[in-house]
């Protein structure tokens, strides 16, 4: 239902924009199409990788790994989540699949936090843009925050 509202609102906004300035709307749609064209291969690759991991890793191992509590358990799942940075829509779909396999919500909170905010594999690119000190400090703070979020979710849930 929510998707229908969002798509409908977007279509209405495009129609209003088209009525006000068709050339500018056409240019904006071209830019959006180019952006989507660039994103599709990456998103499909990540979806394939997530599917492969879920197919190869036994559900019992996932359940056992994501059921460990405490600082050590959250640090472990956060370290796994820190390996690669993922866009939120893919990360949330992955976490939903892990939850259906029996993973604990608190561990998943720590995992998704690092999955979306920390990226060891993308750190060199980030260092080239923002510098080593900023990148290391940002990623370390995000890692610690993920563990704290996991602990807080463990208390609240």
TrEMBL record:
Keywords: Membrane, Transmembrane, Transmembrane helix. The chain crosses the membrane at residues 43-62, 74-95, 101-123, 135-156. This is Permease. It comes from the Bacteria.
């Amino acid at each position: 239902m929510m998707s229908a509202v969002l798509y409908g609102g977007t279509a209405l906004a495009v129609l209003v924009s088209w009525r006000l300035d068709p050339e500018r709307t056409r240019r904006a749609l071209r830019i959006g199409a180019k952006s989507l064209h660039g994103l599709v291969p990456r998103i499909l690759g990540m979806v394939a990788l997530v599917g492969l991991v879920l197919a190869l890793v036994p559900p019992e191992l996932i359940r056992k790994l994501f059921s460990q509590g405490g600082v050590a358990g959250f640090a472990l799942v956060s370290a796994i989540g820190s390996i690669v940075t993922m866009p939120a829509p893919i990360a949330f779909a992955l976490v939903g699949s892990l939850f259906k396999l029996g993973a604990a919500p608190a561990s998943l909170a720590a995992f998704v936090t690092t999955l979306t905010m920390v990226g060891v594999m993308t750190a060199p690119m980030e260092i080239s843009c923002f510098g080593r000190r900023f990148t290391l400090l940002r990623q370390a703070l995000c890692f610690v925050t993920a563990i704290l979020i996991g602990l807080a979710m463990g208390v609240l849930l």
